[in-house]
Amino acid sequence: MPQGPDLYAVLGNPVEHSRSPRIHALFAAQCAQALRYERRLVPPGGFDSALAALRADGGRGCNVTVPCKFDAARAAQRLSAGAALAGAANTLGWDADGCLWGENTDGIGLLRDLARLLGARADAAPLHGREVLLLGAGGAASGVLGALIAAGAARIAVWNRNAARAAALVARHAELADRHRCALESCAQPGGTPTLVVNATAASLGGEGLTLPEGLLRPGVLAYDLMYARTPTAFVAQALAAGAHAADGLGMLVEQAAESFALWRGVRPDTAPVLAALHAELQAELQTELQAGVRATTPR
Ligand code: NAP
Question: Is the pTM of this model over 0.85?
Answer without folding.
Answer: yes
